[in-house]
Amino acid sequence: MQPLADRIRPQIPGEVVGQRHLLGEGKLLANILESGNIPNMIFYGPAGTGKTTLANIAAQRAGKRLYKLNATHASVSDIKSIVSDLEGFAGMGGVLLYLDEIQNFNKKQQQSLLEFIEDGRITLIASTTENPYFYVYNAILSRSTVLEFKPVEPEDVAEAIRRAVEILQKEGLPLEIEDGVCAYMAEAAGGDVRKAITALEVAARSIPMNAEKKITVTAERVRECLGGRGMRYDRDGDSHYDILSAFQKSIRGSDPDAAVHYLARLVAGGDLISICRRLLVIAAEDIGLAYPQAISITKACVDSALQLGFPEARIPLSEAVLLLATAPKSNSAICAIDAALADVEKGRCGDIPAHLKDAHYGGAEKLGRGLTYQYPHNYPGHYVRQQYLPDALKDAVYYTPGDNKFESATRLFMESLKGEKNG
Questions:
Q1: Which end of the chain has fewer CB within 10 Å, C or N?
Q2: What is the pLDDT of residues 59-99, one digit of tens each?
Q3: What are phi and psi of 153, to 5 degrees?
């Protein structure tokens, strides 16, 4: 039997749940489908959000013959087979190729489509769960409109579930749903309509009739069918980097609640190494000299987490996250090194002043090495004015102290030190 998710697949845009930013009144994809003039498009977004459904609707609206390929196992020969049909009756008016998981096509395979996309014989709708700007060949991107699909909101998933229940009931299944199960399923599916519908079908087919000749779908059975959490997480995909990005930005933004939420998502994904690496970076990049001890404490928490492993590792990791999120912030360290690197990369280096060069070898004096160097520890305050940067950069300033307590004290100390010697 055809899967339920396919049996209830929408045939018109108005039946598609979610994606209001694309399908709402006056929105881009809605207007494209209404016109029937279908351009090359790339549908980018997570699974179960309507990409295949809308490709089918687009082909129908365009009046073109629809071909479907999955780039996971398709090859150039499959594309050639489609091209051969272009010369026959089936190809009159052009064809629409729906290429699923285009990120699995290499550059040569993607290039094989270009000639036919350019002359209009093939209209391409490609879908991908990965960022197309990383995985899709530029020549394809430049000829396509990229549309991002969002995870479907729980209330929209619930609408699809109710529609699926009605279909099963019409097919003769004496189905009833416990109170709250529909809402739970819609939330737990993580924005994936197909996952929710599949879980419903498996649950309905695996529960025996009760004494009243009814099949009652319970939360416990749905939980089993969903396979636990519905969170999207892929250590090598966009969700990995999106969560890590949100994690660091929440700590940088001093929001401990958001920070620990994203930590929980990373912990749920079992990604201990990425958490530890990112925390060490944050301690140096975002807290820095505003609280210099933060990196030492973070390192201790990271070491503890690595030694403990999950599930106990979550405790020192939470300690580090909350410490960093609530600590004063300074990015002066990363700004200083990046500014210095920018000069180095531009070739703005210059010769090291002679008095700073190594003088611990025979003949150094004849070369003028170290002759005028003044040893700071021989002077009051362990400071004496002398030039350290090369002549070409002698007035460069890379480090600007932050306005936090520690760096403010550092700035005052340096000003008093240099002011005393300047006086």
A1: C
A2: 888 888 888 999 988 888 888 888 777 766 555 567 889 99
A3: -65, 150
pLDDT of residue 76: 80
In angstroms, rounded to a whole number, what is the distance separating the alpha carbons of residues 78 and 336? 54
List the structure tokens of 241: 């980097």
Which among 257, 301, 297, 293 is positioned nearest to 275, based on CA atoms? Answer: 301
Q: Is the pTM of this model over 0.70?
A: no
Angle at 201 between CA 197 and CA 206, to 5 degrees: 150
400 Cβ neighbours under 8 A, 6+ residues apart: 332, 335, 336
The secondary structure of the chain in percent helix, strand, coil, rounded to multiples of 5, reads: 55, 10, 40
- DSSP-derived letter for residue 81 is H
Return the residue matching tokens 């980097």. Answer: 241
Q: Are 178 and 217 in contact (CB under 8 A)?
A: yes
- For the beta sheet containing 145-148, the strands, ordered from the edge strand earlier in sequence to the opposite edge, are 65-70, 95-100, 122-128, 41-44, 145-148
Q: Which helix (H) or strand (E) holds 266?
A: helix 256-268
Rounded to a whole number of angstroms, the CA Rg of the chain reads 31
Average pLDDT over residues 101-119: 87
Distances (CA, A) of 46 to 33, 67, 131, 238: 21, 22, 10, 10
Q: Quote the tokens at residue 386.
A: 């002398």
Residues sharing a CB contact under 8 Å with residue 300, sequence separation 6 or more, in sequence order: 316
Residue pair 181/189 in contact (Cβ under 8 Å)? The answer is no
Q: What is the pLDDT of residues 228-241, one digit of tens each?
A: 555 555 555 557 78
Determine the Cα–Cα distance for residues 401 and 330; give it in Å rounded to an integer: 8
Residues comprising the chain, all counted = 423
CA distances from 225 to 86, 188, 219, 233 (A): 44, 11, 10, 19
Q: Can you say how many angstroms the Cα of residue 78 is from the centroid of all Cα atoms in its chain?
A: 32
- DSSP secondary structure of 184-206: HHHHHTTT-HHHHHHHHHHHHHH
Strand positions, DSSP E, 88-177: 95-100, 122-128, 145-148, 175-177
- How far is it, in rounded angstroms, from Cα 18 to Cα 5? 16
